[in-house]
Amino acid sequence: MKKLFLILLCLSSLTWSQTNAKEVVKDEGPALTIYNQNFFVAREYLPLDLVAGTNHVNFAGITSHLEPDSVILRDLTGRPLQILEQSYRNDPVSQELLLSFYEGKAIDFLVQRGEKQETIRGRIIRSGYVPSSAYAQNYGYPQPGMGQPIIEIDGVLRFGLPGQPLFPALSGDSILKPTLSWQLATTQAGRSQAEISYLSGGMTWQSDYNLVVEDGPKNSGMNSLDLVGWITMQNRSGKTFENARIKLLAGDVSKIQPPMPMAKAVLAGMERAENDAAAPVVREKSFDEFHLYTLVRPATLRDNETKQVEFVRTTGIQSQRLYVYDGAQMDQYAYYSPDQVRNDPGYGTATNKKVYVMQEFKNSDKNHLGIALPKGRLRFYRRDSDGSLQFIGENTIDHTPKDEMIRVYTGNAFDVVGERKRTNFRVDSNAHWMDETFEIHVRNHKKEAVTVRVVEHLYRCTNWKLMEQSHPSKKRDAQTVEFPVTVVPNGEQVVTYTVHYSW
């Protein structure tokens, strides 16, 4: 993030030529770069008509979650411009705000009595106005009751408004939208175009992937995937951006968060595209340590709007369905110390019968993918006998570069179950050794054979050796082994092994 600010600050110190200014002004639509941490960078244009000396300029319609100290204002014609003062107002006029302007004063209230309306006079003791910063900027919520007005009528106090307040006029200090105000000094009078860039919260994006699973050759465990990826953008900034050029940045950007952290988001931007129906909707490229996704066509992001665009579509992804039986329930031992792990005879004996189902595929060109995939949710579907799609599971992936393997858990098998038990346990604490024997049953109630990976964690000690084993095993890491077994239809496989620990 520091690099981004340095780049913006360096750009702000440059003197632009008139030719460069014209090139920028050709497209007056805003440009957005959206991050997945609920913030974005915006660049907009505004006309300036200045006199020599000091000028007061208002820019109405700024976002409700602006970071004022991130604002960069520059004149695109190269005219010398000095910001003497900048003010950010985020209190647009509302009934509660106007009531606060009349605290201690009397105004009329329109009251409905049956079919008739009449006006009564009341003095505003407390307006009940709560500044938007108490909510929008996460500075904490007001005390209970502070948002309730108090009105005096005929010497009697009452909580709540007696009717619709009738205000004599707007205060001269009222604004209708969040507003930036500047005191600008220049030595050259005239009209020009200026650019404003700033950081703001309230905008995010995420990716979602829908995958349809098609069965491959029988008993192969392989299948084919059709994938459609969506980008979902949410605008909660308090401002509508018309015909914006949008870019989405995927990656983990360091950003100092406010006291109550905002939701996740990703950097976004947009470029104008040629009128080509076959052109992709989103283009991807590497940028710094991240990946940038550019929407080809400008789009309008309205306040409180959720907008989706398709960014990837492909078929024929070769995938493998995996069955994994990890029978030891280790979560309940998470607080154990190394000594407790070694000395508790019951450690690692709690088991479950669930066999995990996973989908695995490679993100490569050869496998009809091969693009940087931003983190998001994968939803898997499969067609039933009448051709309709049925949802079969979902999970999330992190940012995944090209040529990396993707493996996601999608649920538990119904017709494939496991059973695990310890059949022998011997320990000699004085001689510093321990032997354990386990027996694992895997039963297949399906009509076709399945291959199951039986995973065992040898967590007692770092020094271990398999003394006996009924099936060949693969060492996955320093304390994990895997026994691949194929189970015939309506069949069973029994895996046994003895491990010797020493310390």
Q: At CATH's second level, what is the architecture of the domain at 318-361 and 405-502?
A: Sandwich
Please tell me what the overall shape is.
elongated
**What level of helicity do the residues show?**
under 10%
Radius of gyration: 33 Å
Counting DSSP E segments of at least 2 residues, the number of strands comes to: 30
Q: Can you tell me the CATH topology of the domain at 318-361 and 405-502?
A: Immunoglobulin-like
Largest sheet: 13 strands, mixed
- Catalogue the unreliable spans: 1-26, 135-142, 259-280
Structural class by helix and strand composition: mainly beta
Q: What is the strand content?
A: over 45%
Helix run count = 5
Distance between the termini: 48 Å
**Mean pLDDT over the residues:** 82
Level-1 CATH class name of the domain at 318-361 and 405-502? Mainly Beta
Write the layout of secondary structure elements.
Elements: H1 2-12, H2 18-25, E1 31-34, E2 39-50, E3 53-60, E4 72-75, E5 82-89, H3 95-101, E6 106-113, E7 116-126, H4 133-136, E8 150-153, E9 156-159, E10 164-166, E11 179-186, E12 190-201, E13 203-215, E14 222-235, E15 241-250, E16 267-270, E17 282-287, E18 290-295, E19 299-301, E20 305-325, H5 338-343, E21 354-362, E22 376-383, E23 389-397, E24 405-428, E25 433-444, E26 450-457, E27 464-469, E28 474-477, E29 480-487, E30 491-502
Parallel strand pairs: 1-15, 13-22, 16-18, 20-26
Antiparallel strand pairs: 1-2, 2-12, 3-11, 4-12, 5-11, 6-7, 6-10, 7-8, 8-9, 13-14, 14-20, 15-18, 15-19, 17-18, 20-21, 21-24, 22-23, 24-25, 25-30, 26-29, 27-30, 28-29
